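User: Hello, can you help with two protein structures?

Assistant: Certainly.
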Amino acid sequence: MTPLRQRFIQDLQLRNRSPKTVDTYVMHVRNFARHFNESPEQLTGEHVHLLHLLHEKKASWAQYNQAVSALRFLDTVTCPSDTVVTRLPYGKRPKRLPLVRSREEVARLLAGVRNPVIAMVLRTIYASGLRLGEALALTPKDIDSGQMVLRVTGKGQKERVVPLSAVWLAEVRLLAKNSEPECVSTRRKASH
């Protein structure tokens, strides 16, 4: 690993960027340097145009914006300089309305799931608008039945509160009650 890459990674870590963000930024800077066949330190204002990402690589606007952020970070934090990088525009992502499934489609999807735990995770995601990772990270302590809310830790360790339905809460309690003996018998078999 080059000293520049090491310093870039350390600068990102010092600013509490997630490991995924660090990997993504490193990849974008590496690809940018490879495209021009130069070290990132040697790249000048004339190199800094990212149209090749959009035209040749067919990158999405999200990928383009990640590349801009990575280069801006490199140029302002790791290798401070007054180049055109700080003036690189972010791309404007086209607004699209999400595809909303009908109640019948959702009911058919959930009815097709045989495992009750997976079905409950999918119902939780659908009912509360959680990301998959957020739903999988839920624990019993995240349920506040007194206030009828669910405390969710999302991206960037940001916490938010989501309202609960009484029907969902009853289903979760029933599932927990019915799966308890299964867990206990599985633990007993494993310990013998």
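That covers the first. Now for the second protein you mentioned:
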Amino acid sequence: MAGRLSTPAIGHGVPGSVTIDTGQGIIAGDLTLPADPKGLVIFAHGSGSSRRSSRNRAVAESMVQAKLGTLLLDLLTTAEEQIDTVTAELRFDIPLLAKRVVSAIDWIATQPPARVLPIGLFGASTGAAAALLAAAERPAVVRAVVSRGGRPDLAGDGLRFVTAPTLLIVGGRDPQVLELNRAALERLTCTRRLDIVPGATHLFEEPGTLEQVADLAIAWFRDHL
């Protein structure tokens, strides 16, 4: 996949804007690599969100401080985002979103020195399903997956093909999503775990809950990357 890095990110711990040619259009991302990174985590947003999601950016900042590189993506092209703003249909097109995550994984493999880093995926909402399908598509590359308040159930039969160790994080006050995650956990055959953040609702807006998400995710990636 063609792409470019428009501002230096290697070793600086500051975001660099990137564009990735998916074969179906151009998607944008922000790549941040700290000095001596131990791995790279690709973020898959969902449900109408974007790489500018304040919650995922907060988690990404914690990861960079923990020596993990991050790539925050817009999974839709500019034209697709305009369509989705009206129809809200593309944000639920899990196969399409998964293909975009796969495009990012393949693009990273062409970008020195990022290409030598072990890859993890972090998905939120519908992006969690896209991350899991991408992990199933690239089992030799993706080392770990983390879902935050995600909908892993939307990955359907693809769950049984996921080999990367998978952590599902759900708020204790998000009962519907919690039940969906429990059901998805049973369908996964890889190393997997479900962690519940007490007192957290779906968006982890309660004080301290997002920090718990970051801590859990970082520990999981450290163990498996």
